[in-house]
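Model it.
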Amino acid sequence: MAAQPPVFTTFNECQDCYKCVRHCHAKAIRIENGHAAVIQDACVACGECVRVCPAHAKKIRSDISRLLQMLEGDKPVYASVAPSWLAYFPDWTPGMLIQALKRLGFAGVSETARGAQLVSAATATFLREHPEGLWLSGACPASVDYIRKYHPRLADRIVPVDSPVQAHCKELRARFGDIRIVFFGPCAAKKNEADRHPDVLSLACTFPHLEELLRSREITPDPAAEGAFDLGPAEEGRAYSFEGGMNDTLRDPNGPVDRYFAVSGLQNLDRFTREQDPEHGPLHFVEMLACEGGCVNGPAMRPGACTHEALARTDAFARGGRATSVGRDVPVDLFQTYAQAALPEAAPPPEKLRAALESVGKFTLEDELNCGACGYDSCRDFAAALVAGKAEPSMCHTFLRKNFERKSSALIKYIPAGVVIVDQDLRILECNALFVDLMGPDARTIYDSLHNLDGVDLSRNFPFASLFTSILRNGGETAKFSQPWGKMLVNVSVFSITPGKVAGAVVQDVTRTEIHREEIAERARELIRKNVRTVQEVAKLFGEHIAESEILLTQIAGNYSDRGALDGTPAHHDKGPAQ
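Modeled.
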């Protein structure tokens, strides 16, 4: 068995939108660190998550490297091609398909629809022998796994006949001996069949992977190419690719079946089978298909491939032969039973369920909105997933929104400044009490009555409305400081919240701060003036003192010089440079 599961997540591409959870009817998705991981034991490989993932983070395993190894091996490799190829390659003829595959290295090409014809013939025989109760088709592997895992009581009501691809593989091996067989189609669940029965089906690949391989080898088939399918062309079995096609191959006016049902989509299958009594009553046969509309709408089909023209083309090919498979010879043994594969599913204890609900703000029945945004049908289903470790509280959008609103409201309420948020028409969406006080007594009267100013036109009473207009038009943010507003001085910071739609502002009354600041500045200026006067006085006094000292010293020096001359002591005259 291949190590990689058929369907997986590329985590670095997952955008935690939970769309896969909403669309996975098996709820085989576990949210880990905000990313959606496939729970392989619970997955039936229907591929619905691959189809709906907007980020293309869900992938179907590519087995191209294994295919190339097989083509280079010593055993011949044959291709089994699903009938939906007519819709995926609408411009190709059978000859073009055969030529393209043989240029890749395939020894032969045959239609899976031949196996479908054998399955219908064997099913018709079985129904004649068991003409009572409800019987389910085993043609779609995803539907079969869904019944085995999620409605195990009906597992023994699946007709014990191989799927079309396994029937086809047995027919090819009976004809060509020891060969390898690769299936090409729109299905992810066929990979499970190949992994479980490698001795029958060697490998299963999708049409997109085949297209990718042909492109890499630069293989473009010739529109005039001719060729024949091995074992001969299929006929009515080609109808299997769309809803109701299998039933068409089983219809027999003289047969025992009371009613034929075609149920496509796992959600529809769940509703249909939930209340059925499988063992009593008239014979009813149910054609089960995991993909709504049939295989032509499979997860690996080209977007938009399931058109009226594609259906008409497929139907035309199907109608080219027999109308029914009833009475066809079945040369190989197609018997296969389908065992139960029930998943362990224990209901969480009530106290844990309650704790999980409370963790996302669900304290009463009124809190349980059952909006489905998390991907689960009800808040209690989501809480059970929380207990099981399959979900995270952040998946609850209403919890996140309310939590955000509480936090933002608290911030707006308690921030020590006026806060206002407006729409593109400058009408107030939200504001706090401090902003109301700045707006004046009329605004306070309205606020006390309604507890908000929602819808009030800000431009009528707010002198800085032009700042909002500019921000809403150009985005970004701006700030103005010490702006006069009546008898106040305010600092105003305006910023964009939703470009062109919503903007906000923080308005701070700085009147007292500015007055206090001016008082401090004036006191500082007065202190400076006093200091300057003191310095000037000191300088003046110091200058007068220096002058008087210089005069006194000069006189002393002169007297001393004159006295030396009288005593007969020669006077000393320093003629060197002044020191």
